[in-house]
Amino acid sequence: MIRRKIEPRHDWQAKVEADGLIWHTAEGKPYWNEASYYAFTPGQIEEIHGATEELYRLFVGAGDAIVHDPRLMERFRIPDAFHDAVRAAWHAEPAALNYGRFDLGYDGTGSAKLFEFNCDTPTSLLEAAVIQWSWKQERFPQADQFNSLHDKLVAKWRDLAPHLSSVVYFAHVADDAGEDTVTVSYLRDTAQAAGLTTVPILMSDIGWDSEHGCFADLDGNPMWSTFKLYPWEWMVHEEFGAQLLKTLERGDTQWLEPIWKMIWSNKAILPILWDLHPDHPNLLPATFDIPAGDAVAKPLLSREGANVSIRRGGQVIAQAEGEYGEEGYVYQGLYPLPESAPGCFPVIGSWVVDGEPAGMGIREDGLITGNTARFVPHIIIEA
User: What is the pLDDT of residues 244-264, one digit of tens each?
Assistant: First the structure.
């Protein structure tokens, strides 16, 4: 796992925009950073692939334990009214891409370690699936890359098509940066490549048709199948939360991803995983209580590193601002990320689609990975 410098393509902005990445610069600096890349050996990729398979297995087991234990469900701050809906969806296995991104610590040796699982509203998908592949094809056409994301997404949509309504809506918020827009637009493209009919919509434009008892678009058309890049923990507290619960109980409205993702995407699962599998090589110690040693404090529901703090030797050495924390914290053992360049600490994002490893992306930032982290491409080289 070696970070190497390389000259960016002179027209890189136009090329990534042509592939759909309009959000390629943040705060005047490239978010998509092709001035460097990471080279991995096949053995290192096997480690990441194997860790991803194993972590997925652990999450399935943890999900079974959580939905069958009301005391564990309470840890997730899920409203009581939605507990049965989460359990029912877990057992029914409704239509789902079942995709997500395991964020891992890895220095090229030893075992990859889980930081968290972003599987409800994960981003950096287009970059991992398409943008870095196009870059590799141009700069290193003979090299390989851990990347089957695009093909697996299209194949999964094709598999889901008979189980969805004739029109599938793709919903997101109108984010200023365009990150959510880019992600949902790409996923909509993969669905259309699989033959589905799709319609884009903003979350704020979804209404409730009281006469027919269903959610509807601006033209009053019923929305029976909807992919949403919008957190479930926000949805259950929305104005239409009661109506949402009714549709879940009836089972006539499909939300992708399903509501059971509330347990996998919540950091409360980290201490539960550790309790179930203490000293597992792919896990870091995690607890709901403040530990005596070095640790990373994480709010249960924070995003993009918000309100995360790193504690070492009894002192807070790094922390991020944000609006999270009232829901509670977990404390995870500190993993020393490699500093591959001054101020650059890489985090591996290892993707799954339908529960299978599908590729990876790498983001660099300071000690806490936030929403201005830089995405760096990778290739596979012979050892």
Answer: 999 999 999 999 999 999 999
Cα angle 264, 303, 17; round to 5: 105
Name the residue ranges covered by the structural domains of the chain: 2-266+345-380, 285-333
Structure tokens at 344: 């650059």
Distance (Å, whole) CA 383 – CA 76: 44
Q: How far apart are CA 326 and CA 306, in angstroms?
A: 12
What is the C-alpha radius of gyration for the chain, rounded to an integer number of angstroms? 21
Strands 309-312 and 295-299: antiparallel
pTM for the predicted model, two decimal places: 0.96
Give the rounded distance of the alpha carbon of 192 from its chain centre.
22
CA terminus-to-terminus distance, the chain: 10
The SS3 assignment for 165 reads coil
Pick left, alpha or beta for residue 355 (phi over 0 → left; psi -120 to 50 → alpha; otherwise beta): left
27 three-class SS: coil
| Category of 359 on φ-ψ map: left (φ > 0), alpha (ψ -120 to 50) or beta | left
Tokens 């890359």 correspond to: 145
177 confidence band (pLDDT: 50, 70, 90): low
- Give 310-321 pLDDT, tens digit per residue: 988 878 888 888
CA–CA separation, 351 and 378 (whole Å) = 14
